[in-house]
Amino acid sequence: MSSRKLPSFDELPKFHNFSGCAWDVWGKDDELGTVNLLTEDVVKIATEEIKLGKTICLNWPVNFPEKPFYTRQTPIIHSWRKSDTINDDSISINTQSGSQWDGLKHYGIAQHKVFYNNTPSESLYRGHISIPDPGKLDPKLMKLGIHNWSQHGICGRGVFLDLVGYYTSDGLPLPYDPWTTHGIPLKDIQDCAKKQGVEFRQGDILLLRMGFIQRFSSATPEERLFFHGKPETFAGIEQTEDMKRFLWNNHFAAVASDQPALERVPPPQGIPQLHQTILGLFGMPIGEFFDLEALSKFCSETGRYTFFFSSWPLNVLGGVASPPNAAAYF
Fold first, then answer.
1. What average pLDDT does the segment 220-233 reach?
2. Of the residues 15, 58, 161, 278, which has the fewest C-beta atoms closer than 10 A?
3. pLDDT in tens, 111-122
4. SS in 3 state form for the chain?
């Protein structure tokens, strides 16, 4: 859907011991990464997916999970009465406690202490952000901020692969527990796409349902309490060179799932996290905790697994991450 020919994964240079460095694809000053693929033409063509006027929310309520993982803060939502007929409320969240996009300043190349486009870790601003004058913006504060995606929008053709539906279509139970360490192999993702009749296009936004939110919603309070009391273990896509090759060579604009980390947690011993490649080298947004349950039901009923996708992250200057504010349109 775009006339520009991009290099294949194997044509990308290495960055030290990491294959697939895409920093030269959009230039040394780029802060959009693969969101660059969402051109006006790509978005315009993607709107042809809207035929019924059906809309589906893809965001888990901000309230969940009440006890976030990775020691992140609990969402605090407070309302109060200002007068008999006026109410206000306030919301305080860690932007990565629930449904989220990981931004480009969230995760870098740990061994080499750099982020996307070779941005040194020590050059990124940390601390309280105060901007009293909108006419005076500090470039250091703004570098790789989530506002870049907020002001562009993450909108285009969404492609949904229902791996839970794929695995259980013959009445069999899901062959893994989404709350335990399990790698989803690339072959299963490709077979799922084939079974659903999905063919990828450059600039697609890939959504993968692996079962976390379904599992969380059906769990007992005791199961949730036990789960939060142990080290994080999650199912997710496997950390292989072929998986990286798949994500890059299909030129997805973004990838998201219903799991807390998209990838298997923890990875096999000695294998780097895929976050380092996807965010740090590709510049590709990673979505986590997307609520894909209603989407799964509608896609199964209609046999449609592509749609118009829109997401407008919070326009926080210099922000690290954001709730996605995402929806599917059929």
1. 86
2. 15
3. 999 999 999 999
4. CCCCCCCCHHHCCCECCECCCCCCCCCCCCCCHHHHHCCHHHHHHHHHHCCCCCEEECECCCCCCCCCCCCCCCCEEEEEEEECCEEEEEEECCCCCCCEEECCCCCCEHHHCEEHHHEEHHHCCCCCCCCCCCCCCCHHHHCCCCHHHHHHCCCEEEEEEEHHHHHHCCCCCCCCCCCCCEEECHHHHHHHHHHHCCCCCCCCEEEEECCHHHHHHHCCHHHHHHHHCCCCCEEEECCCHHHHHHHHHCCCCEEEECCCCCECECCCCCCCCHHHHHHHHHCCCEEECECCHHHHHHHHHHCCCEEEEEECCCCCCCCCEECCCEEEEC
